[in-house]
Design brief:
This protein is mainly beta and 125 residues long. The chain is built from 2 helices and 6 strands; from the N terminus they run E-E-E-E-H-H-E-E. The model has no long low-confidence stretch (mean pLDDT 88). The chain is globular. The relative contact order is 0.19. The structure holds zinc ion.
């Protein structure tokens, strides 16, 4: 883990591309309305660990929205696709973006909606 107060790694850029991370797939949680995929991201440069969740209308389409939040190694061991939204909600902050939010990346916190039918205004900035 890096000391994020001293080192401004590129993973701390909300619009940092996914290619900066090594991805470990956790699993998917699909409903009739959408398909959400949950992964653990390890930064290739500083080693920090992130919970990444992308939500799309269909399995292989581009995500309508995504969330990327910093989590501890301990937290990451208990991540499941069903539990991802709850973990995001208790993090001090996370990054989010996608067409649903009309942004390539912003910082936010609070409830995260990992299902498309939930109103996106639930995301508190
Ligand atoms: Zn990093």
């Amino acid at each position: 883990m890096c000391d994020t107060t001293e080192l401004r790694c590129q993973c701390l850029d909300p619009q940092c591309g996914v290619e900066a991370f090594h991805e470990t797939d956790v699993g998917a949680d699909s409903t009739a309305a959408c398909f959400s995929n949950v992964s653990l991201f390890d930064c290739r440069f500083c080693g920090s660990r992130w919970l990444y969740c992308s939500i799309a209308e269909e399995i292989f389409s581009r995500p309508n929205r995504w969330y990327r939040g910093p989590i501890s190694l301990k937290q990451s061991r208990s991540v499941t696709p069903e539990y991802a939204a709850e973990i995001l909600a208790i993090l001090p902050w996370y990054f989010y973006g996608g067409p649903d939010f009309d942004t390539n990346g912003l910082k936010g916190s609070g409830p995260a909606s990992t299902h498309l039918e939930i109103d996106e205004t639930e995301v508190a900035l």
